[in-house]
Amino acid sequence: MRENCMPHLAPQPLGAPLGDGVAEFGTDGLRGLVGTAITPALALQMGFWCGLVLPPEGPVVIGSDSRLSSPMLVAALSAGLAAAGREVWQLGLCPTPAVPGTIRRVGAAGGLMVSASHNPPQDNGIKVFGPAGAKLDRERQRAIEAGLRGDGAIEGAAVEGANPPPPVSFRGDGAVSHRPDLIADYQQSLLDSVAGQRLDGCPIVLDLCWGSATACGAAVFTELGADLTVLHGTPDGARINQNCGSTHLESLRRAVLETGAAMGFGFDGDADRMLAVDGQGRIVDGDHVLYLWGSALRDAGALPNDRIVATVMSNLGFERAWQASGGLLERTAVGDQHVYAAMEALGAGLGGEQSGHILSARHGLSGDGLLTALQVATLVHGRGQTLAEWMEGSFRPYPQKLVNVTVPDRQKRIQWQLCDPLRLAVEQAEAAMAGHGRVLVRPSGTEPLLRVMVEAAEDEQVEHWAGLLAAAADQHLNASKAA
Question: pTM for the full model?
Fold first, then answer.
C-alpha cells in the first residue's frame, strides 16, 4: 500500500519542477488564461502531484465545464494521475458540486473540477477537493505547490502518514474510466433535496449560461413540473459567461418580464452559484437568498442558533435586518472555503456569499447553484407566493458600489495597505461615513484586480467615495518606479 505523503522531489519523468512563476492556489484553486497561466504541462504535473498527495485509497473524480480547453486539461490531469498510479473517473460535463457529491457518495480519495467559474471563455482553472468533498485543505495545497515548484518537502507541509517521505516515483499503472453515468446520481440528489415538493405549472426562466448547468438544470426543473423557458441552454465553450448567466442578468431579467414568469434563475459557468430575478425584474442576490432561506429555516426550527455565516462583502442592510430579527450573523473573508470553515466550527446551518454561492449544512456544505434555485423556487411556490411577494418581506439593502481596479503588480495588489496615500484615503472615507457605511478593499484571489467596495446609507456618499478610492488605487499602485 502506498503511503499518503508529501514526497521529496527527485529527477523523475513526471516529478520534475515547473520552476518559478507557477500559479499558487487562490481563493478557488488555480485559474487564469489558457496557454499562459493554465497549460497542459501544468495540468499534467498537477494531476501527478495530486495523485501523490491525496489519500491513497479510492478513485479520483474529474469533472469539467464546457470550455473548449476543458477536454485538453482533463486529459492532462488524467495522465498525471495515472502516472502516479491512481484510478481516475471522468464525469464529463457537470456542475462543480457534482464532484464533491460524487466523492462523498462513492468514497473517492478526492476530485478535481476543470473550470474557470465565471471567467471568460479563454480562461480555465482547476479546483481540487479532498476526501470529504471539501475544498482541499491548505496543508495539501502547500504540498502540491511545493511539488510544482520543485521545492521538495517543506517544513510543516508533510501530510500525515509519511515518516520519512519517500522519493518521487513514477508508476504509470493508473486506469482512466469514463463515468458520465454518475451524473444521474447527482441529478437525483437535487430532486431528493426538495423532499417531494413540486413546481407544477410555475412559470420559471433558467439562464444556463452555455455552461455546466446545461448538463441537468432544465431536466430537474422539468421533472418537478415547472413551466420552463430556457436561455443559453446548450453547452458552448466559446460563449460561456458571455453576456449571460449570473454575472450578466440582463437577458434573464428581460425574459422574466416578457414571459410573465414568477421568477428566473441565472447560473455561472460551473453552476456552483446562482442569482435570481423576481417577477418585477428585481435582482435577488446571495444576501437575499440567505435572508429568505434562513428565515424559512428559522421558522421551521431548523437553523441552529438562528445563525447565518456570510462574508465581508455581504450588505450592511442585510446584517442589520437579520440582527434586528433576533438572528446572529458571522462574517468571514471572501471565499466559500472560509464560509465552510466557519460553518463547521460554529455548527451553522446556512452560509454563503453575496455573489450567490450558498452552502447548506443539510445538503453537504457544497456551493450548488441548482440546489439553491430549487430550494428558493419550491419554498416560494409551496407557500402560494411569488418571489416578488416574498421579497417584500426582506430587507432594504444599503447602496453599494464595487469598482475593480486593474493592478498588474501582485505584491502591490496584496500589500495595498503599505501604500500610505490609499490607506489614508480609506481612513478618511470611513471617518466621513461615521458608522453609517463601510469601505472594503481587497485583492482578487483569481484575477489581477484590486476590488474597492463602498456602501453607505446614501447613494451620493457611495458614488463619491467609490470613485475617489478607485482613482487613488489606480494612481498610487500603478505608478511607475521611476515616478
Answer: 0.85
Distances (CA, A) of 312 to 287, 315, 404: 11, 8, 16
- The topology (CATH level 3) of 400-477 is TATA-Binding Protein (3.30.310)
Q: How confident is the model at residue 391 (pLDDT cuts 50, 70, 90)?
A: very high
Q: Which residues pair with 229 in a beta bridge?
A: 205
CATH, range 185-392: 3.40.120.10
Secondary structure E strands in 105-156: 110-114, 123-129
- Residue 177: active-site member: no
Check residue 24 and give its pLDDT: 66
CB atoms < 10 A from the CB of 120, how many? 14
CA distance 126 to 146: 17
Instruction: Name the band, by pLDDT with cuts 50, 70 and 90, for residue 229.
Output: very high
The DSSP 8-state label assigned to residue 137 in this structure reads P
Domain 30-178, CATH among 3.40.120.10, 3.30.390.10, 3.10.50.40, 2.40.30.40:
3.40.120.10
Q: Which of 117, 189, 212, 366 is catalytic?
A: 117
Please state which of the ranges 12-26, 61-75, 310-324, 425-439 shows the lowest mean pLDDT.
Answer: 12-26
Which pLDDT value is given to residue 168? 62
- How far the first Cα of the chain sits from its last, in Å, is 60
Burial of 482 (0-12, 13-18, 19+ CB in 10 A): exposed
**Grid cell of 66 as nine digits:** 464546457
Q: What are phi and psi of 401, to 5 degrees?
A: -135, 130
Whether the domain at 30-178 and the domain at 400-477 fall into the same CATH topology: no
Are the C-beta atoms of 151 and 22 separated by less than 8 Å? no
DSSP H helical ranges for 347-397: 369-382, 387-392
